[in-house]
């Protein structure tokens, strides 16, 4: 169950990271409310996952899911560059997440 909590926490991290763009400096109510709720839920789920998983593993996987998802949505939603080197670096993050899942 801890890995499910961690996956959900990572997905919520993507939500709040992307949500930051839509808050326009926390001047828009609904995007700000969504972002703050996502932050709280993400941290809560990370805490639940860390009860059974090693903290370093949980935090690294959580931040990795957030980083990869945020880069992907940045490319799709905001037209950020999808250069080969950028995608290769994202691939290294994915490899790290998989390595921690399989071997930690």
Automatic annotation (TrEMBL):
Any GO BP: xenobiotic detoxification by transmembrane export across the plasma membrane
Protein's membrane topology:
Multi-pass membrane protein
Q: Which Gene3D superfamilies match?
A: 1.10.3730.20
Q: Is Coiled coil a UniProt keyword of this protein? A: no
List the GO molecular function terms.
Answer: transmembrane transporter activity
Q: Name one GO cellular component term.
A: plasma membrane
- List the residue ranges forming a coiled coil, or say none: none
Which keywords accompany this UniProt record?
Cell membrane, Membrane, Transmembrane, Transmembrane helix, Transport
The portions of this protein that span the membrane are 29-50, 57-78, 84-103
By its UniProt entry, which Pfam families does this protein fall under? Multi_Drug_Res (PF00893)
Q: Where in the cell is it found?
A: Cell membrane
Which family does the similarity line name?
A: Belongs to the drug/metabolite transporter (DMT) superfamily. Small multidrug resistance (SMR) (TC 2.A.7.1) family. Gdx/SugE subfamily.
Q: Which PANTHER family match?
A: GUANIDINIUM EXPORTER, SMR FAMILY PROTON-DEPENDENT DRUG EFFLUX TRANSPORTER SUGE
What is the protein name stated in its UniProt record?
A: Guanidinium exporter
Organism for this UniProt entry: Parazoarcus communis SWub3 = DSM 12120
């Amino acid at each position: 169950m801890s890995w499910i909590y961690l996956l959900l926490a990572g997905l919520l991290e993507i939500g709040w990271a992307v949500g930051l763009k839509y808050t326009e400096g926390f001047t828009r109510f609904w995007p700000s409310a969504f972002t703050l709720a996502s932050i709280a839920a993400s941290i809560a789920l990370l805490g639940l996952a860390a009860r059974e998983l090693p903290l370093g593993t949980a935090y690294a996987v959580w931040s990795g899911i957030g980083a990869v998802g945020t880069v992907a949505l940045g490319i799709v939603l905001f037209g950020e560059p999808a250069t080969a080197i950028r995608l290769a670096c994202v691939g290294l993050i994915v490899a790290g997440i998989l390595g921690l899942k399989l071997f930690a």
